[in-house]
């Protein structure tokens, strides 16, 4: 049998060929005799000719479109490095008999920790006090004007109580907060176990003191956080988004922050990334913004990499991989035939 060809998108490596994420351990693939590992040329979109003779693609940020996948004869799995997959055409994967896999285990704790980091920084006025301290005596003299907000008894709300939302609540449990969430797909048993009350969207926005966005980006969630819902929030409330920027109507959020209709926001994601340097949200002093990288640690890259490698090796062995997004592909005859061929060796 021909080699099982595994491609990595070009953005896993810098211009000089060194790995961007050295914690991503490729040795299980490199040491597998049947595997041939290749790197694609970098670019915003994976071209069809780049994957014409590829069995598995480990993908970071480039787009994979229907045009990319058209005519693909060998590709069996796209292993996305992370949990967001809005850069992949899922319907095209279904049509072509290609499994799409994500890495929920790798991101669960790091992203939940980043949410708590923003929550503590916002309520503790960390950035404000940092600026005061750097001004010397004049700044120190103003510290009593910037007291933080204690968390005991406050309400932590979440849009979504899935992989990351649930982990956020687990980590926040010692803080003695009240927990509420909106999730039409939530498991009531999980909510009960976590002490989370499931509520409707209006209640979530109106009652949350800290509201965290923990849902995927799709047509149903795009601009789910809009002007009308922001208007329901308390003037003392904070919004945190570590999911995807377009879930929030950024123009509406900017206006709400400018007019102090909410207390502040912690944003690891923006509607356009990177933002234009003159974007007004960058000027706000009641907002903490990080470059879609707050959860980037040695542990997340090690975990994501291990999950993607495991998924690729599972497919090569004819097994259904963990973290499968498009479950219907299991019934696709093209995909079934490829798995059977791999299993036969």
How would you characterize this protein structure?
It is a single chain. The chain has 345 residues and is α/β, with parallel strands linked by helices. The protein has two domains: 4-102 and 297-344, Rossmann fold; 107-289, Rossmann fold (3-Layer(aba) Sandwich). It is built from 13 helices and twelve strands. It has helices at residues 27-30, 66-69, 90-96, 104-123, 126-134, 137-140, 163-172, 188-194, 201-207, 227-230, 250-258, 298-316, 333-344, and strands spanning 4-8, 35-39, 56-59, 77-80, 99-101, 155-159, 178-182, 196-198, 210-213, 238-241, 264-267, 287-289. It has a seven-stranded parallel β-sheet with strand order 8-7-6-9-10-11-12, with helices on both faces. Helix 7 (163-172) links the parallel strand 6 (155-159) and strand 7 (178-182). Helix 4 crosses helix 7 and helix 4 (104-123) runs antiparallel to helix 12. The model has no long low-confidence stretch (mean pLDDT 95).
């Amino acid at each position: 049998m021909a080699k099982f060809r595994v491609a990595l998108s070009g953005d896993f490596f810098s211009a000089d060929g060194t790995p961007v994420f050295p914690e991503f351990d490729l040795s299980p693939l490199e040491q597998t005799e049947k595997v041939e590992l290749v790197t694609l040329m970098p670019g915003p979109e994976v071209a069809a000719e780049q994957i014409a003779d590829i069995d598995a693609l480990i993908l970071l940020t480039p787009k994979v479109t229907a045009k990319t996948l058209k005519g693909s004869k060998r590709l069996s799995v796209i292993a996305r490095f992370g949990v967001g997959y809005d850069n992949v055409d899922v319907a095209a994967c279904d049509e072509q008999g290609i499994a799409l896999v994500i890495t929920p285990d790798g991101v669960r704790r790091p992203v939940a920790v980043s949410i708590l980091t923003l929550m503590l920084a916002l309520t503790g006025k960390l950035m404000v006090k940092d600026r005061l301290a750097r001004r010397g005596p004049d700044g120190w003299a103003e510290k009593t004007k910037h007291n933080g907000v204690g968390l005991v008894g406050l309400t932590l709300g979440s849009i979504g109580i899935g992989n990351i939302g649930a982990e956020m609540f687990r980590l926040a449990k010692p803080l003695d907060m009240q927990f509420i969430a909106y999730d039409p797909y939530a498991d009531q048993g999980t909510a009960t176990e976590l002490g989370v009350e499931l509520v409707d969207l209006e209640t979530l926005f109106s009652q949350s003191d800290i509201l965290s966005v923990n849902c995927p980006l799709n047509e149903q969630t795009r601009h789910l956080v809009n002007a009308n819902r922001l208007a329901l929030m308390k003037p003392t409330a904070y919004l945190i988004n570590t999911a995807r920027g377009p879930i929030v109507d950024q123009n509406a959020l900017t206006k709400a922050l400018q007019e102090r209709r909410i207390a502040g926001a912690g944003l690891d994601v923006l509607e356009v990334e990177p933002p234009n340097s003159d974007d007004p949200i960058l000027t706000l002093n009641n907002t903490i913004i990080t470059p879609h990288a707050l959860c980037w640690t040695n542990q997340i890259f090690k975990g994501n990499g291990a999950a993607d490698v495991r998924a690729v090796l599972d497919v090569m062995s004819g097994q259904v991989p963990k973290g499968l997004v498009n479950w219907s592909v299991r019934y696709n005859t093209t995909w079934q035939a490829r798995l059977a061929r791999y299993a036969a060796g």
